[in-house]
Amino acid sequence: QVQLVESGGGLVQPGGSLRLSCAASGFTFSAYVMKWYRQAPGKERELVASISTAGRTTNYADSVKGRFTISRDNAKNTVYLQMNSLKPEDTAVYYCYATIGSWGQGTQVTVSS
After folding, report:
1. 9, 83 Cβ separation under 8 angstroms
2. How many CB atoms are closer than 10 A to CB 20?
3. pLDDT tens digits, residue range 54-94?
């Protein structure tokens, strides 16, 4: 069955960096667009970034442009989200989404001093 497992979340100070990973299994990873979403307390889930099947095309929410980078390694069935210059407003649960229609369990990112 389809499985997406996120890792790499944690507590970081403002201005710091984290790299999230999402390991996929149970489907042909290289055939699907992959996305990262986030959901902050009391807010709706929002799209953060997306990446095309071969990784040539990426898109970002305006709030993270220039700070976050999405990438993928199709040989490892893994998608990444490099997050730099983190701000308190980036605090949220981050979810990996495969356009086959599956979500990961989420990983908490907390940006606080």
Report:
1. no
2. 25
3. 999 999 999 999 999 999 999 999 999 999 999 999 999 99
What region does 56 belong to: left with phi over 0, alpha with psi -120 to 50, or beta?
alpha
Residues 3-21, mean pLDDT to the nearest whole number? 98
- The residue count of the chain comes to 113
pLDDT at 74: 98
d(CA 24, CA 29): 7
Residue 36 near residue 59, CB atoms below 8 Å: no
Cβ–Cβ under 8 Å, residues 3 and 26: yes
SS (HEC) of the chain: CCEEEEECCEEECCCCCEEEEEEEECCCHHHCCEEEEEECCCCCCEEEEEECCCCCCEEECCCCCCCEEEEEECCCCEEEEEECCCCHHHCEEEEEEECCCEECCCEEEEECC
Residue located via tokens 């369990």: 105
